[in-house]
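This follows on from our talk about sequence and fold. I would like you to pick a protein and set down its sequence and fold. Go ahead and set the record down below:
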Amino acid sequence: MNTYRQLPMRHQLYVAQGLDGAWGMSLRSDYSAIVTIGLDDDGFFYILDVIRVREELVALRRTLIEAYRRWSPNVFYVEKAASGIAIQQMEVGDSTGIPMIPVQPLGSKESRVEAISPLFESGRVLLPRYAPAEMPLNFVDADEPASARRDAIPVPAGPNAWW
């Protein structure tokens, strides 16, 4: 996986955030993920931030707002599934000014990973060389039940949603 040491200037990136929401807080529950990606003019995708949490809806709403304020993305995609639907129904975007765009998941998570894997293979997706300790770049905990691993990797709701 290719990495970056220094980001381009903020004005040189189109920044998108997305929420892949889930329900519940038990060890068997899926994670909710908020991913922030920057796209430069040369077509490189910079993974700027990854937040992976198991939180109740009110706490997830707070985490989402904090992530938005930290990065000020151009757009915020919300998967139309699980807690993403509830976040939209809470009118989080309307009350906070977050430009939320609901995205209907197309196909299985596996097929969505397959659709974007050429970007990773071509080296166009870049991870931070020195990621903050709180950024979960491994995505899967070894002690998690297999059922939780399917949703451990945040995947865009459609092949062209973020990528």
